[in-house]
Amino acid sequence: MVQVDTQAFLDDLYALRQIGAFKTGVSRPTYSAADMESRHWLVDRMAEVGLAGSIDGIGNVFGKTSRPGPIALVGSHIESQIEAGWLDGALGVVAGLALARSGLAVDVCAFADEESHFEGGYIGSRSIVGDLSEAQMDASRSRDRQQTLRDALASAGLAGRERVQIDPARYRGFFEMHIEQGSQLEKDALKIGVVSGIVGIWAWSIVVEGQQDHAGGTTMAERRDAGLSAVRLLAALDEVFPKVCGPRSTWTTCNVTFEPGAPVGIIPGRAEIRLEFRDQSMAVLERMEAALAAVVQESNRRERTKATLQSVNKSMPVICDSEMIAALAKAAQHHAGTEWQHMPSGAGHDAKMIAKKLPVSMLFVPSIGGVSHHWTEDTSDEDLALGIQVLASAVETYLAGR
Amino acid sequence: MVQVDTQAFLDDLYALRQIGAFKTGVSRPTYSAADMESRHWLVDRMAEVGLAGSIDGIGNVFGKTSRPGPIALVGSHIESQIEAGWLDGALGVVAGLALARSGLAVDVCAFADEESHFEGGYIGSRSIVGDLSEAQMDASRSRDRQQTLRDALASAGLAGRERVQIDPARYRGFFEMHIEQGSQLEKDALKIGVVSGIVGIWAWSIVVEGQQDHAGGTTMAERRDAGLSAVRLLAALDEVFPKVCGPRSTWTTCNVTFEPGAPVGIIPGRAEIRLEFRDQSMAVLERMEAALAAVVQESNRRERTKATLQSVNKSMPVICDSEMIAALAKAAQHHAGTEWQHMPSGAGHDAKMIAKKLPVSMLFVPSIGGVSHHWTEDTSDEDLALGIQVLASAVETYLAGR
User: Fold this and answer.
1) How far is it, in rounded angstroms, from Cα A100 to Cα A105?
2) Domain check: are B147 and B41 in the same one?
3) Measured between beta carbons, which residues in chain A are less than 8 angstroms from residue B185?
4) What are the chain A neighbours of B253 within 8 Å (beta carbons)?
5) A61 and A182 in a common domain
């Protein structure tokens, strides 16, 4: 059985943690100086473990093995949210290095901007599967609207470079190791999650238009209060979603804004709701969409305001490959006994994009307290070491076709 | 019976409309160049109608009559919201000029900053009744936090001037003419509103604290969603307020904010609600307060979040003086036949502050379309002319003690 150098794996993770360090986490927004330093660091590490590494025109760091096939692709992303944890993304990339060091036939990739600092999102993994056009790149700006993607790439020294696409014939599949970003494993004292699939995320905007008016001069019977209609609509969703959801569905009203949003004295003339729901089942997603549309329609029947539902994003659910799941489950059983489970991923990941070209799978390790996207995010060294052992064994099994 | 020079009254209003003109309205924020130009213009107009006018240390423009008593105080404010209508405030000040011109024994005052461009609010009418300390002035900043009140006064050339206080013994009462800022009069084709009282405005902040989490990784059963608790709390208020309110109560959720308020992916960890309710009856206000407190308490019993209710402002309702109401009603009957009504004021006015020292009353004229605090605010010349006739007759009757 393949042996992983656990200490070298942890040493790499701790070295990467120093680049863009923020408190106990990191701050490496895509194409920032810290992010680019980490990408060049990664190219150097790839050379050490026998991979031919380079950075392409979207910032993807791609390292190719010279070993004979069959080959697995392993990776994740290396940039972070602005004040984020040290493991999210970085773990799956450094895991690839550890597997290459152990002698497994793996290519390793760090995809650019999984964290969506730039409009469009997942631009690295989309680029590598041929799902990012030059025109989309021309149009993309940073989330804070301060910089175009083209300017950011130029500042990072990446302008004019070719963009690599993966050759599906080269790989048997894609493995992504990741922190759970939830507390399901911790709550049940489990060490490994073998991911069954990645949820579809359907995000929506609901704009409610009414009439801005004086909060004292306008009687209750006359009002066209956009804020009140938004509240009633959200209360209706709170009633109806539990009746149509699946056992692991999530739904979240992430933001509500009232205009003008004065602290006192003015009836809101406009409200905007940003909400999302997630599930692994298309049937459940479609039921929830129908329920949402019905609630908006009912709002327009009852209220003196006009609510408009708009789809912001509809990412499709991805089912992980059954043979890869079996290899991960077998390895988990071997290394972790009963301390593992099958589970869906409630978050989106690069694997979702790669699934357009390759069979994919994911392995989760516990997040302490379930924290993610925050600098306090953490996982114990023991759990990280167990995770990399499970991943290596699974990749070995899978590539051997056993 | 007293005769008003209606044309001179309208000429004054139209002349004032030119100062800080914005589209068909005006923009005269307190202590701006346009506002100060209007105050100096007013001092000149006061001289023309036999009043000794001056500007004091808070910007109040005060004009004293030399006629023998009994004397009425007449006025309102002259500054405006940033892009506002031409009549709000200005009408009540120019009405005072018209009454002085007609030979009535009136002092006229334009109170500074009824529109609350500076923290604290109503600083002019509060100053004149002795309810604004030097320490409060030291602490006050502009609503946009860009300027201290002291700096604004210095820039306007008012630093170091004494602040005038009214001598209650000098006056029989205070009259304020104002646009309705609602559509009750227009809806019933009425021309005059005799104000029975000014509502109390009780404004609140409710902060809901939960736990910010990943919207995919955190199951519905685990969440402590501050946004959802805020929605449920507001939906509960929408159920309970109609059961405890009075016939003319209003309640408004003016703003809701979620933190971090991401468009997607993050469960809100904190929400803040800004709401207010208004009524003329203390009993109703107290019932609504009790209902609000109970809903917050019930939220804390049911939810996994912590809601905290805080009072932001509690202005007390003011009942207009019955003898002044009778004089206004008699004059309305005389000039407008049946086209008038008694009605409460849903908005706050300087009269509310002056009520601490003097009997007060107000007269409303229709707002076209109910619009106020917007540059399209308007009232027909005919309605303005009728209103000033009613006011003049009422003041004459009241001062004569008939």
Assistant:
1) 7
2) yes
3) none
4) 227-228, 231, 258, 268
5) yes
For residue B110, what are its two tokens? 């334009």
Q: What's the rounded mean pLDDT across residues B240-249?
A: 96
How close does chain A come to B2, measured CA to CA in Å? 32
Q: Is B211 found in the same domain as B172?
A: no
Percent share of chain A, pLDDT over 90: 91
Instruction: Inspect the interface and report whether the beta carbons of A254 and B262 lie closer than 8 Å.
Output: yes
Indicate which of A219, A295, A310, A377 best probes the interface with B, i.e. most B CBs within 10 Å of its own CB.
A219
Are B335 and B381 in a shared domain?
Answer: yes
Chain A residue whose CA is closest to B343: A217
Q: CB–CB of B400/B8 below 8 Å? A: no
Q: What is the pTM of this model?
A: 0.83
| Chain B residues in contact with A219 (beta carbon < 8 A) | 182, 184, 248, 250, 346
* Residues B243, B156 share a domain: no
| Residue A96 pLDDT greater than 90, yes or no | yes
Number of domains in chain A: 2
Tell me the sheet residues that pair with B271: B208, B258
pLDDT at A132: 97
Which tens digits make up the pLDDT trace of B70-91? 999 999 999 999 889 999 999 9
With beta carbons less than 8 A apart as the criterion, state whether A26 and A80 touch: yes
Is B228's CB within 8 Å of A348's CB?
no
Q: Which residue range is the domain that position B255 belongs to?
A: 205-315
* Domain assignment present for A1: no
Residue A13 lies in a domain: yes
Domain check: are A310 and A339 in the same one? no
The string over B68-84, giving b where at least 16 C-beta atoms fall within 10 Å of a residue's C-beta and e elsewhere, is: eeebbbbbbbbbbbbeb
Within 10 angstroms of residue A392's Cβ, the number of other Cβ atoms is 27
**CATH code, domain carrying A162:** 3.40.630.10
Give the Cα separation of B177 and B186 in Å (integer).
17
SS3 B396: helix
pLDDT (0 to 100) of residue A306:
98
pLDDT of residue A402 exceeding 70? no
Q: Do B274 and A263 touch (CB under 8 A)?
A: yes
Pairwise CB contact (< 8 Å): B258 & A261:
no
> What count of Cα atoms within 13 Å lies in the side-chain half-sphere of residue B332?
22
Residue B163 placed within a domain: yes
User: pLDDT (tens digit, 9 = 90+) per residue, A282-326?
Assistant: 999 999 999 999 999 999 999 999 999 999 999 999 999 999 999
**B225/A252 CB distance under 8 A:** yes
B380 occurs within a structural domain? yes
**Are B209 and B195 in a shared domain?**
no
**Which positions in chain A touch B264 (Cβ < 8 Å)?**
201, 203, 254, 274, 276, 312-313
Question: Chain A contacts of B303, Cβ < 8 Å?
Answer: none
Q: Which residue has the tokens 């056992």?
A: A247
Interface test with A, best of B201, B224, B229, B255 (most A CBs within 10 A): B255
Q: Are B49 and B101 in contact (CB under 8 A)?
A: yes
- CB-based contact A231 B235, cutoff 8 Å: yes
Choose the final residue of a domain: A314, A333, A359: A314
Q: Please identify, among A314, A337, A364, the residue that sits at the C-terminal boundary of a domain.
A: A314
Q: Are residues B159 and B252 in the same domain?
A: no
